[in-house]
Specification:
mainly alpha, globular, two-stranded antiparallel sheet, 3 helices, single chain, 90 residues, 2 strands, 49% helix
């Protein structure tokens, strides 16, 4: 699936998501490091939330993009919003 930019260029949706996630991940890491926070990459667990109204194919595209940039890998667990809130409050 491709999308068209404002200047008329076409890119695959997964590439757009991939680059966006990659940028946000690197921006967050840089902010932690610049703030003097130790960033233990192997101990970091990223959370990617998606709107519940998204279709399964749309969620799959986002999951693939997140895997490609190393945000998620290996075992994947799906949480509903109640489980997620409990996990975050720990």
């Amino acid at each position: 699936m491709k999308i068209e930019s404002a200047n008329g260029k076409h890119l695959s949706v997964i590439k757009v998501f991939n680059k966006t996630i990659e940028y946000l991940k690197q921006h967050a890491i840089n902010h932690l490091i610049e703030s003097g926070v130790d960033y233990p990459e192997k101990e970091t667990k990223w959370v990617l939330t998606l709107p519940a109204i998204w279709t399964d194919p749309a969620k799959s595209i986002m999951r693939s993009a997140a895997e490609q940039v190393g945000l998620i890998y290996g075992y994947k667990t799906r949480y509903d919003h109640v489980q997620f809130n409990r996990m975050v409050k720990r």
